[in-house]
Amino acid sequence: MAVIKLNGSEAAIASASNVGFAKLVRVLNNKGSVQVITHKNAGGTTLGTVTLAAGEIAYIQKAPSDTLTGAATSLAVNVNFAN
């Protein structure tokens, strides 16, 4: 099991967020259905998307100025792996 260091508080990413200029983000789909998370660069170009199942957690690496967007029930927090 990975040990993570929290660098902030979890918040919804219903609108584009750089998640505290994070380089690594823990994202939770806190909903009973799938959600799509969109990763964009600072210029607004989509770099990729990922679909998270209900209750699924993903760790997304990004540039500090890149943004993530999901839904009101997509929760994200800036993290680092501690091990």
What is the element layout, followed by pairings?
Layout: E1 4-6, E2 11-12, E3 24-29, E4 35-40, E5 46-52, E6 57-61, E7 67-69, E8 74-81
Antiparallel strand pairs: 1-8, 2-8, 3-6, 3-8, 4-5, 4-7
Description:
This protein has about 80 residues and is mainly beta. The chain has one domain (about 5-80). About 0% of the residues lie in helices and about 50% in strands. It contains no helices and 8 strands. The protein has strands spanning about 5, 10, 25-30, 35-40, 45-50, 55-60, 65-70, 75-80. Strands 1, 2, 3, 6 and 8 form a 5-stranded antiparallel sheet that branches. A 3-stranded antiparallel sheet has the order 5-4-7, with no helix packed on it. A hairpin with a 5-residue loop joins strand 4 (about 35-40) and strand 5 (about 45-50). The radius of gyration is 12 Å and the shape is globular.
